Amino acid sequence: MENKYAIGIDVGGTTTKFGVVNNKGEILVQGRIPSNEHDFIEDFIQELYAKLMPMINEVGGIENIIGIGMGAPNGNIYSGTIEYAPNLKWKGIIPMADLIAKKFGVPAKLTNDANAAAVGEMMYGCAKNMKHFITITLGTGVGSGIVIDGKIVVGHDGFAGELGHTIIRPGGRMHKNTGMRGSLESYASATGVRETAIELLTQFPDKESLLRNYTINELTSQTVFECAMQGDPIANEIFEFTGEILGESLANFVMFSSPEAIVLFGGLTKAGNLLLNPTRQAMEANLLPIFKNKVKLIFSELNESDAAILGASALVW
Amino acid sequence: MENKYAIGIDVGGTTTKFGVVNNKGEILVQGRIPSNEHDFIEDFIQELYAKLMPMINEVGGIENIIGIGMGAPNGNIYSGTIEYAPNLKWKGIIPMADLIAKKFGVPAKLTNDANAAAVGEMMYGCAKNMKHFITITLGTGVGSGIVIDGKIVVGHDGFAGELGHTIIRPGGRMHKNTGMRGSLESYASATGVRETAIELLTQFPDKESLLRNYTINELTSQTVFECAMQGDPIANEIFEFTGEILGESLANFVMFSSPEAIVLFGGLTKAGNLLLNPTRQAMEANLLPIFKNKVKLIFSELNESDAAILGASALVW
Question: How much is the ipTM here?
Fold first, then answer.
């Protein structure tokens, strides 16, 4: 095992990140390619191969690679397939693990991207030594990985842990990709924050706000954060609102699996206490007394792409 | 083990049921006492002892009893205590398993009542051979037991699986015991059905309904059921409404743990398809495509008290 390495690949909606990882969980070298520039999965894999092989050669060639672990949206650990992922270009059922194994000539495993991140968190991050926790990725969408008794929850079919799609505002905001109303993802994601901004600016046309200085395309969770830091009341209200909905959802999750901690990561966590405080308040307010003041609500110490690459590579060991 | 027996005790909000169970999962003899007639736990245990000992003597005396298993609201498997159960008279933390073990002189174990029922379902009921399922008890309240990979989910502190208290209508109906708004239990319980009936009858004072022939005290989930069976439109609407909320909640639970089946039991299931059809419809409508038409929604084949007694006794084996 001395000079053996694993490849970790994280297929995201926009970007695919990958790295060569040693058995201490160190990413020796990493890279990225866009996820959605190829209509055919074979062309995507070809580009991945072209970028990865030089890295693999840096560590002594493919014979030093034990295997490839991947995380992807709607990835299924049982079958190694990506099934009907709404945010990817390749439709239907993609036998990703098989295609990768053939292309590289080493064993390949695939799981859900959020589950891969949770494994990374458990092996190398702030959930080390925890047996019961939930990770929530607040990015373009909302992903989740659930760990119970030290094991990722995958359910009877491999698809468990889609907490971003649980309904928290029945009849509420329409989710464009799923057509469902009121799901957590339609509020507590970067996309959701942008929509909340547009809604509030439209709803109160006379309320002054720094956010009115931006064009509609410039309104992002990042601009909302910057304006909130300057004390803008609407921008602050956006994070209050987002945190309230997120916190209510987290309370529901706690009453399901009673975790020791909830680990938040992804772009939205850059908002820090602006998001964390209202989230914690709403979570505690909606918990039964037996759960109150027990659950740690923390930000990941790993950066997001590291967690996903490390978690994916951990499938190999 | 030939002539050895276990005692199963199910402490409910109103009634405590108990039985002597053999190692084939047959209840040889059973009885019941009210749960809430004694202010002091010691007096309750004394009555239980007085009723159980003759049964125990029927099977050859206490030396033939391997142990006592109990299910109770807010029961904790790690500590054997009942902690702050809102529906029981005894407040604070009750060391139930210890008290019972001392009184009877045999080992005693305690868990959450709904978890006990789930174990009964897994060992002797319609979830036999299933490794991933959720049981939902629709009684005076809403209880739940979650099984993942063949094991009851208890969480880091032993309190997991309080799905009746998850919020499905934020800001909605007030739950009298918890003070929380919009929890599943405030709608999809016998109490909730009665409240929905009163709300609808008050909201539409001119709408004819058989339910108006009953006094407010006579309005129960049972009378609503009887009127619905006679085609009463308001009574039918009550089950539609209840099923819709229950189904939405079930969809959320499915996206958490992706179970093979959800097993419903408790008094409300007497409504049969009146409840099952709208529940199934709302559940399917709120699931991501990858979960649709996969999850069995079934009624328990065990009667409720059998499931709980058997499940509690199974803690002993």
Answer: 0.91
Q: Is the pLDDT reported for residue A1 higher than 70?
A: no
Average pLDDT score over residue span A137-147: 93
Nearest to A167 by CA among A177, A179, A181, A155: A181
Residue whose structure tokens are 């060569």: A20
Q: State residue A4 phi and psi, 5-degree precision.
A: -100, 150
The minimal CB distance from B258 to the residues A155, A248, A260 is found for: A155
Type of residue found at B298:
I
Note whether B257 contacts A256, CB cutoff 8 Å. Answer: yes
Among the partner residues A162, A163, A255, nearest to B166 by beta-carbon distance: A255
Q: Residue A236, SS3?
A: helix
Per-residue pLDDT at B231 exceeds 90 = yes
Residue of B156, B263, B283, B295 best to disrupt the A interface, most CBs of A under 10 A: B156
B178 contact residues in A (CB cutoff 8 A) = 288
Q: Answer yes or no: do A166 and B252 touch at CB < 8 A.
A: yes
By the 8 A CB rule, do A31 and A51 touch?
A: yes
Q: What is the pLDDT of residues A87-110, one digit of tens each?
A: 799 989 999 999 999 999 999 999
Residue A204 has which token pair? 């109160």
Residue A280 vs residues A196, A242, A247, B83, B161: alpha-carbon distances, Å: 20, 12, 6, 24, 21
* Distance to chain B for A79, nearest Cα, Å: 14
Instruction: Give the integer Cα–Cα distance in Å for A111 and A107.
Output: 14
Edge-first strand listing for the sheet containing B261-265: B151-152, B142-148, B133-138, B261-265, B296-299
Q: Are A145 and B223 in contact (CB under 8 A)?
A: no
Which residue of B lies nearest to A286 if distances are taken between CA atoms? B180
| B307 Cα to chain A: minimum distance (Å) | 21
* Closest of A310, A314, A309 to residue A16, by C-alpha: A309
* Minimal C-alpha gap between B277 and chain A (Å): 19
Contacts of A313 (CB under 8 A, 6+ apart): A6, A7, A8, A19, A21, A69
CB A71 within 8 A of CB A9: yes
Q: B230, B82, B156, B214: which is closest to A131 by C-alpha?
A: B156
Model confidence pLDDT, tens digit, residues B129-155: 899 999 999 988 899 999 999 999 999
**Is the pTM here over 0.80, yes or no?**
yes
Task: Tell me if residue B314 falls in helix, strand or coil.
Answer: helix
- Between CA B315 and CA A297 the distance in angstroms is 33
Q: How far is CA B196 from CA A142, B213, B221, B233, B245, in A?
A: 34, 17, 10, 14, 12
The answer to whether B260 faces chain A, any CB pair under 8 Å, is yes
DSSP assignment string, A3-18: T-EEEEEEE-SSEEEE
The two structure tokens encoding residue A21: 């990882």
Q: In what order do the strands lie in the sheet with A65-72?
A: A27-34, A15-22, A5-11, A65-72, A108-112
> Which tokens go with B61?
């005396």
Minimum distance, in Å, between the CA of residue A58 and any CA atom of chain B: 40
Residue among B183, B115, B177, B180 at smallest CA distance from B144: B115
The pLDDT tens digits for A256-277 are: 999 999 999 888 999 999 999 9
**A248/B167 touch (CB, cutoff 8 Å), yes or no:** yes
Question: pLDDT averaged over chain A?
Answer: 94
Query: Is residue B48 within 8 Å of B18, Cβ to Cβ?
Result: yes
d(CA B193, CA B203): 15
